[in-house]
Amino acid sequence: MSDWSDTGECHTYKPHKENGRIFRISYGNAKTRADAKTQALDVSKWSDAELVKAQMSANEWQVRHARRVLQEQAARKDWPERERADTRLALEALFLRNKDAETATPARLRSLWAMHVIDGIRVEDWAALLADPSPHVRAWTIQLMCEGGKPADERLKQIATMAAKDESPVVRLYLASALQRLPLEDRWPIIAELLKHENDKDDANLPLMYWYALEPMVAADKDRALKLVPQVKIPLVRQFIARRVAEK
User: 3-class secondary structure for 31-43?
Assistant: First the structure.
């Protein structure tokens, strides 16, 4: 950590390395910390069960590094299938715990992310995840599901319904982002529903995110875009559509 910086001394092409004060912050006596407690923080040596348990830790560093090690485990060809299955089941149990408690959402997201990195979310899981009580779980499900490309047609229909009926602006934001991963033809029914949300017109992000998903669609099919305009309840997007259509 540097407790100060100066453009004249620190940001020049050849900084004066002997100047300034740089500190390293550590817990306890750094000279005597190489003991069993320190060794216990070597996450790479933890068992699969310990890595799963760490997803509920109050220490975010442990959570993230445990998830990284699980991802590395999943990439290994010699990770026994039984251990992989047991790890997925343990993470699923954490995810399902306190499902209806909003205060449990951070812990459930951690287990969801961990299941994702070990490729533990099954095809049959997506429908239930998209209908989860937590808007943050629904939002992250949209992102994770679309990262691998186009979802199944049934899921596309489900997220189109969510675009129309989901009350969470967080979910709509993730939908708008995910649209940019989908083929243009698959975007139309979803973006048409998103653009009907008049309450989103003054949001700092949603109108632009909707436009980022829509812009290449307008360029590809101007006639279809013009037919969409009467349904659009967001003035900024209507303006952008008109401008894009008028371009040569």
Answer: HHCCCHHHHCCCH
Q: Is the dihedral of CA 169, 170, 173, 174 positive or negative?
A: negative
**Spatial CB neighbours of 165, under 8 Å, sequence gap ≥ 6:** none
Inter-residue contact 53 to 97 (CB < 8 Å): no
pLDDT exceeds 80 at position 60: yes
Q: How large a percentage of the chain has pLDDT more than 70?
A: 83
């049959």: which residue's tokens? 124
Q: pLDDT tens across 83-129, in order?
A: 999 999 999 999 988 676 666 788 899 999 999 999 999 999 999 99
pTM for the predicted model, two decimal places = 0.82
Contact 29, 71 (CB under 8 A): no
Domain segments of the chain as ranges: 126-248
| Least confident segment among 52-56, 104-108, 218-222 | 104-108
**Predicted pLDDT of residue 143:** 96
Place of tokens 């008028």: 246
Phi/psi for 2 (5° steps) reads -100, 130
